[in-house]
Automatic annotation (TrEMBL), chain A:
The UniProt record lists the keyword Ribonucleoprotein: no
Reaction(s) catalysed by this chain's protein: sarcosine + (6S)-5,6,7,8-tetrahydrofolate + O2 = (6R)-5,10-methylene-5,6,7,8-tetrahydrofolate + glycine + H2O2; sarcosine + O2 + H2O = formaldehyde + glycine + H2O2
UniProt KW Cell division keyword: no
Subcellular location as annotated: Cytoplasm
Domain called Rhodanese: residue spans: 35-79
Cofactors that this protein relies on: FAD; FMN
Keywords, sorted A to Z: Cytoplasm, FAD, Flavoprotein, FMN, Nucleotide-binding, Oxidoreductase
Principal place of residence: cytoplasm
Protein name per its UniProtKB record: Sarcosine oxidase subunit beta
Protein family: Belongs to the SoxB family.
Signal peptide: none
Alphabetized GO MF terms: nucleotide binding; sarcosine oxidase activity
Organism: Rhabdonatronobacter sediminivivens
TrEMBL record, chain B:
Family of the protein in this entry: Belongs to the GcvT family.
Source taxon at top rank: Bacteria
Gene3D superfamilies reported for this sequence: 2Fe-2S iron-sulphur cluster binding domain, sarcosine oxidase, alpha subunit, N-terminal domain, FAD/NAD(P)-binding domain, Probable tRNA modification gtpase trme, domain 1
Protein name: Sarcosine oxidase subunit alpha family protein
């Protein structure tokens, strides 16, 4: 792997950039690997990377039916935070956030982690109490959050309207070390680092079946032939149910469309990420200058990467109310992704009924922030058979009723 | 030098000059001008700066595809960044400012980027800015952010003063695009009798045909267009709309249109824009085609324009860019040379990449004396901030030598045309590559599919690949007639109009010019003018393994600018295909996403802003609260009194006063927001038995019962009192926040699962005003009103009665959420305020006093009653709250029964409800956690409980709290340590949560 640096750019500039090589080569699949990961999104690639880096397992292939990073890794709103309420969530998201802090240096690829701070607005008394509760939990979990008052909110976000006629801003849960990153670069950087360890990243290779013998996974059938494997990791987000079906088990997962949009780019005007959950919308500004906006998921299941228009209206309305100055900006592009939702809205990182087959899915609307931590935990689980970060996220928790539910606002006050 | 011609201009009215400013410079144009034509008419070629290198940028196109000429429009609260000058209609007093430069448009220091383009290649930022780590946040990113972005941000406190309107529409056939193809399709569908809507994004019908000099049915295009529009206007089943852009096609024929109602009429009354949401049975996109630029060195200089745009400026607005060299790979661009020549302008040469140019149009150009050089391309364009000349070379050469250098003011380029397939593609319509015409066009065999499995979008005219006017009209007629037929229209669609246009020779596929150009030229060939993506960048991306067209797009930012690649995408993917040595269809396109051109966020919001953002639900007593010191609390869409402040009080003092008064005299609570759902029918009891954990079917008329509702997983989601009205009717009370959700939940089960049960539900929440009359003197007050026997014997605890109180029809429920003697009185909403006033008036000497939601919370906490949302959070089962008594053991099934039998739910270690008493009497922080020694496997502090409710109790004179604690009820008297601020620990003893009137004497009193 050719190391990236300012000096390397300078040197290449002198020879018309002819010396750059492929960030990840596109090899033909071999007959067999120790580990095959299905899904070359952030989570799959991170799993492979930490298998190699932490556990010395490098005879690994990461295969994908399309182009790498083309699922939810490449279509999210890039928010990274770890201000979760429940202990298992806080543990894995905080691990993830801390890995993000040094990921550019680890991968030698600038993923542009921007610890600009994330705030979640409290706009009802009930929401405020919820965030105070989270603040207290975070303090014991080692997650650095703080409940701040309206004046501090306004100082951090000059364009916010504190006194909207409907939902005044009563304060916010503020995580200063949270932020954003360049989503595509996360996938590309991991792919490049995996390739540098000798792993194969194989695109345009769709899985059509899973083979097993004596309850143990042996191979995957793909559009590019059968590939043998010692262990199999399924990391395919919205299509997890289909892969699980091939592997012979069922998942408590539903797939729905989640949408996002960006505005045309403008000069910097908001330096932090703001999430307004009472009115359902969140917004940050990309380094290019676009307002990156996300909102709610569709209320019905489907696989189209589009979504219902009324969600866009609701989200934009909520944000125009929160940041009135955006009213005359224009929506440049809207898109959808398929998110895999579990019953408790928390992920699954788990062994499966098929020996040697592991699954990582169910990240729902918030998977991007978890990529490094998820890969770290999944790699440990696949390498060792157990991982403290993954323990609580077993798929069997639904059978046992051990939910990890982050939706603290199941009801509102009388 | 661009300038206004002395005559001509089919769209301008020279009798109506208009004044405007550009960068505070006063200029003028004519009615009918766009801002672009007016600026060019004034010789203002330089319009802005590019995104990355801050290169000078001038207008390149004449319509929605313009990537360069973006300006800030308007001032103050009406300021709007990134407006295309090419689609901005000129009006008197228009004020525009150029963007993305410092200190000025002419002299931009940030253009220094441009001095080192060899370092700022595609994706260079992924390879550097890595160290030191802290520099990304504090140094690199701020610099990058400041130099990126385009337009200025509106002021932080600016409030858009304009109105926007959302409307719904319905059509059998929606035709998008009002060029001759769109008009023809609408005529066919309209004549056949379908309900037709026709939208055109510009201010004029007819599209390109008049500019191209097409003759239709033996008459000039303009006159055919006029009669076609008149014919359509005469049809009652057809509606026409100018300035309405088809923005997006969504599933099931749901189409968005953005109508610019008053952008060109500042100060007009009515909305500024209107967002149409139309459900159409069939959609016809007659959206035309967009000309492609050619990739040659210096093709981004101001003065290099699309050939069709040059023609538009000359013919429509009588604006000439000056002495113009035409560069082409097809016949169509000859029309531009001819138009310029006929307008008296100098066209020194037409450089044609093809080996021969023998068609009718080249012949006409020759006849006009224009020199044609075949097999020729541009080596490079000369100039600094505008074009000063062009060097030509052999098309098949490496461009190291030129054949000729010519002075000129402008270059008109044409690389062929691409159908506008966006709307076709939004909802899954597929494309095929047409190699002869070198474009992707809609594949009619793979259209977007509607609910019935049939295609619901068709394309017409150039949008379907029929570039010539003759073919286009026939194609459009067929599309219109077919769409109408699909929707059941049976009328005669008539015949297509016939167009006469010269035969055109095939184009030559030319993706870079010259074909074998070296690196030095390729790094000056722009593909994406706004984002500064060049041929060399796409080639670098290919070399570095970003082989997917999506990777190349994202790595180089090709096509990600405000024009979304309308000019750059096809050229870019052709260059990528070449670099990967694969055919263009193997590369494919990126995904086309709505909107077609950007739409204002305000227009998406519509009227729903400020007070209208969400409906404000008001109880009948709302105005009384507002006039009596209320401190509001938003609860869902309701506004509820948190407390009523009296002079000199802070909120806490008010709350304490309200609590004490309810305990000693009478408190009044406006409980109107409480959900009230009527459930009736022969199966109503059976239905409620499934919904609630306890038995409701055995409740007798005249009685009330408290019940719990769980979701399928067994988690508590709502609670409340059910009153049986008669044999078949129950009145279900829900929490205020839960009313709508629970009603939806009921209907979900009734409609999807138990559809054959005879149950009817109605949400009556707003039909009644409900007032809780609470406190030891409550009965005395109600008896003063007279009309009902409310004695302990006549109306015992958990009973209800109907009658007349003080002359008002009322239902009185003997229930209590405070632990006091309490009556909840429901009266018709219209009489709520009068009844409230009556209570206040009659109870004055009894010490009657309203209380708010905070006092409500404290009163119930003193009594140990749970609150949904405080003691519950979606993870709590009734057993955790010691509510086992409310879980029926007799019923075979109810929602949540199986869920709460799972192993983790019956774990004795679950956290359960207890009361807490701090050792020092202080108030525990809300949400505080009880800590134990040690950490878990992930290094987190171990906890064994948390505070769910915590208040200062004025009744008891100290802090009270409820908490969920591991095995809590088994550990009475034990002292726990709760984490406070800054590592402080607060000690609290586990006690019974019921702190007030343990025996219930007051309640039953």
């Amino acid at each position: 792997m050719k190391r990236y640096s300012a000096f390397a750019i300078f040197r290449e500039a002198l020879r018309q950039h002819q010396g750059w090589t492929e960030a990840w080569p596109s090899p033909e699949p071999r007959d067999r690997y120790d580990v095959v990961i299905v899904g070359a999104g952030g989570h799959g690639l991170a799993t492979a990377y930490y298998l190699g880096k932490n556990h010395g397992i490098t005879n690994v292939a990461v295969i994908d039916k399309g182009w790498l990073g083309g699922g939810n890794t490449g279509r999210n709103t890039t928010i990274i935070r770890s201000n979760y309420l429940q202990d298992p969530s806080a543990a894995i998201y905080e691990k993830s956030r801390s890995l993000y802090e040094t990921l550019s240096q680890d991968l030698n690829y600038n993923i542009m982690f921007s610890p600009r701070g994330v705030m979640m607005l409290a706009q009802t008394e009930h929401e405020k109490r919820g965030y105070l509760r989270t603040e207290r939990a975070n303090a014991l979990q080692g997650v650095d959050t703080r409940f701040i008052g309206p004046a501090e909110v306004k100082k951090l976000v000059p364009i916010i309207n504190l006194d909207g006629p409907r939902y005044p801003v009563l304060g916010a849960l503020w995580q200063a070390r949270a932020g954003t990153a360049r989503h595509d670069a996360v996938a590309w950087g991991y792919a490049r680092a995996c390739s540098a360890m000798g792993m194969h990243v194989i695109e345009q290779c769709a899985v059509t079946g899973v083979e097993s013998a004596g309850g143990q996974v042996t191979a995957v059938n793909t559009t590019r032939g059968t590939i043998g494997c010692g262990k199999l990791g399924i990391v395919v987000a919205g299509h997890s149910g289909k892969l699980a079906d091939m592997a012979g088990f069922r998942l408590p997962v539903e797939s729905v469309a989640l949408q996002a949009l960006v505005s045309e780019p403008i000069k910097p005007c908001i330096d932090v990420v703001v999430m307004a959950n009472t009115v359902h919308g969140y917004m940050s500004q990309s380094d290019k200058g676009e307002m990156v906006i996300g909102g709610g998921a569709d209320g019905y299941n489907n696989y189209t990467q589009r979504g219902s228009w009324h969600h866009i209206e609701e989200t934009v309305r909520a944000l125009c109310e929160t940041f009135p100055m955006i009213s005359r900006l224009k929506m440049l592009r809207q898109w959808g992704g398929i998110v895999d939702m579990t019953g408790d809205r928390s992920p699954i990182i788990s062994k499966t009924p098929l020996e040697g087959c592991f699954i990582n899915c169910g990240w729902g609307t918030g998977g991007f922030k978890a990529i490094p931590g998820s890969g770290w935990a999944m790699a440990e689980l696949m390498a060792k058979g157990n991982a403290p970060l993954a323990d609580a996220f077993s798929m069997y928790r639904f059978r046992e009723g051990r939910f990890i539910d982050e939706s603290v606002a199941a009801g509102v006050a009388h | 030098m661009s300038r206004r011609l002395a005559s001509g201009g089919r769209l301008i009215d020279r009798a109506r000059p208009l004044k405007f400013t550009f960068n505070d410079q006063h200029m003028s144009g004519f009615a009918g001008d766009t801002l672009a034509s007016a600026m060019l008419g004034r010789g203002q070629v330089l319009a802005g700066r590019s995104f990355k290198y801050h290169r000078p940028r001038g207008v390149v196109a004449s319509g929605a595809e313009e990537p360069n000429a973006l300006v800030g429009l308007g001032k103050g609260e009406r300021f709007e960044p990134n407006q295309r000058t090419t689609t901005t209609e000129l009006f008197d007093g228009l004020s525009a400012t150029s963007q993305n430069h410092w200190p000025s448009l002419e002299f931009d220091l940030l253009a220094a980027n441009n001095l080192v383009p060899q370092f700022l290649t595609a994706g260079f930022y992924y390879k550097t800015f890595l160290r030191p780590r802290a520099f990304w946040k504090h140094v690199y990113e701020p610099i990058i952010r400041r130099s990126a972005g385009l337009g200025r941000a509106p002021d932080a406190e600016s409030r858009d003063p304009d109105r926007y309107e959302l409307v719904y529409g319905f059509a059998d056939v929606l035709v998008i695009g009002g060029g001759v193809a769109g008009l023809q399709a609408a005529l066919a569908a309209g004549r056949a009798g379908a309900r037709v809507m026709l939208w055109e994004q510009t201010a004029h019908w007819g599209g390109r045909a008049p500019v191209d000099g097409v003759e239709i049915d033996g008459q000039p295009a303009d006159s055919w267009i006029k009669s076609a529009v008149e014919a359509l206007e005469g049809m009652e089943n057809v509606s026409l709309r100018l300035r309405c852009m088809g923005a997006g096609v969504h599933d099931h024929g749901y189409v968005l249109g953005n109508e610019r109602v008053a952008d060109h009429l500042p100060g007009a009354s009515g909305p500024r824009q209107r967002l149409w949401r139309v459900r159409a049975d069939r959609v016809i996109t007659a959206t035309g085609a967009i000309e492609r630029p050619l990739s040659f060195a210096g093709n981004d200089l101001p003065g290099v324009m699309l050939a069709s745009a040059v023609r538009d400026y000359v013919v429509n607005w009588a604006v000439s860019p000056g002495r113009t060299v035409v560069v082409t790979n097809n016949d169509d661009a000859y029309r531009t040379a001819i138009a310029l020549k006929e307008a008296g302008e100098d066209v020194p040469v037409i450089a044609d990449a093809r080996d021969e140019a023998t068609g009718a149009l080249p012949q006409k150009a020759r006849d006009l004396g224009i020199r044609i050089m075949t097999g020729t391309g541009v080596q490079k364009v000369k100039g600094g901030k505008t074009v000063t000349g062009v060097a030509l070379c052999r098309i098949d050469s490496d461009g190291s030598t030129h054949t000729e250098v010519l002075d000129c003011d402008a270059v008109a380029m044409s690389g062929g045309w691409s159908p506008v397939v966006h709307l076709w593609s939004h909802c899954g319509g597929k494309l095929i590559w047409d190699d002869a015409q070198a474009f992707f066009r809609p594949d009619p065999d793979r259209p977007p599919l509607g609910h019935d499995g049939a295609g619901f979008v068709a394309c017409a005219g150039a949008a379907s690949g029929a570039l010539g006017a003759g073919d286009g009209l026939a194609d459009a007629h067929a599309a219109g007639a077919a769409a109408a037929r699909d929707t059941g229209a049976t009328g005669d669609a008539g015949h297509p109009a016939r167009a006469e246009a010269p035969e055109e020779a095939p184009l030559r596929q030319v993706w870079i010019m010259p074909a074998r150009a070296g690196y030095a030229l390729r790094m000056k060939m722009w593909l994406d003018f706004q984002n500064d993506v060049k041929v060399s960048d796409v080639q670098l991306a290919a070399r570095e393994g970003y082989h997917s067209v999506e990777h190349t797009k994202r790595y180089t930012t090709l096509g990600m600018a405000t024009d979304q690649g309308k000019l750059s995408n096809i050229n870019g993917l052709a260059v990528l295909s070449d670099a990967l040595d694969q055919p263009i269809p193997a590369t494919g396109t990126t995904t086309f996403r709505p909107p077609y051109t950007p739409i204002t966020l305000g227009a998406i919001s519509g009227e729903a802003k400020g007070d209208l953002f969400q409906p404000l639900r008001r109880t009948p007593m709302h105005d009384w609260h507002a006039a009596n010191g209320v401190h509001w609390e938003p609860v869902g869409q309701w506004r509820r009194p948190f407390a009523y402040l009296r002079a000199g009080e802070d909120v806490h003092q008010s709350v304490n006063r309200e609590v004490l008064n309810a305990r000693s005299n009478i408190g009044l609570l406006d409980a109107s927001t409480l959900g009230k759902i009527l459930v009736s029918g022969p199966d109503a009891g059976r239905f409620l038995d499934m919904l609630y954990t306890n038995m409701m079917s055995t409740l007798r008329p005249g009685k009330c019962r408290y019940g719990l509702m769980c979701n399928e997983n067994g988690f508590l989601m709502d609670d409340g009192v059910v009153a049986r009205l008669d044999e078949q009717s129950f009145l279900v009370h829900t929490t205020s926040g839960g009313a709508d959700h629970i009603h939806g939940w009921m209907e979900d089960w009734l409609q999807c699962e138990w559809w054959d049960w005879k149950v009817h539900t109605v949400n009556l929440t707003e039909q009644f005003a409900q007032i809780a009359v609470v406190g030891p003197k409550a009965r005395a007050l109600l008896e003063r009103l007279g009309g009902m026997d409310l004695s302990r014997e006549a109306l015992p605890f958990m009973g209800w009665a109907e009658g007349t109180l003080g002359g008002v029809r009322a239902r009185v429920f003997r229930i209590s959420f405070s632990g006091e003697l309490s009556f909840e009185v429901a009266v018709p909403a219209a009489q709520g305020r009068a009844f409230w006033d009556m209570l206040l008036h009659q109870g004055r000497d009894l010490g009657v006093m309203p209380y708010g939601t905070e006092a409500l919370h404290i009163l119930r906490a003193e009594k140990g009653f749970i609150m949904i949302g405080d003691e519950t959070d979606g993870t709590v089962i009734p057993q955790d709250l010691n509510l086992n008594w409310a879980i029926s053991k007799k019923k075979d099934d109810f929602l949540g029964k199986r869920g709460m039998e799972r192993v983790a739910m019956t774990d004795p270690d679950r956290w359960k409800l207890v009361g807490l008493e701090t050792l020092d009497g202080s108030v525990l922080p809300h949400g505080a956690l009880a800590v134990v020694e040690g950490v878990n496997a992930n290094g987190q502090a171990q906890t064994e409980g948390r505070v769910t409710s915590s208040y200062y109790s004025a009744t008891l004179g100290r802090g009270i709290a409820m908490a969920l604690v591991r095995r809590g009820p088994d550990r009475m008297g034990e002292v726990l340590r709760f984490a406070g601020a800054h590592d402080a620990r607060i000690e609290a003893r586990i006690v019974d949560p019921v702190l007030h009137d343990k025996d219930g004497e007051k309640l039953h009193g």
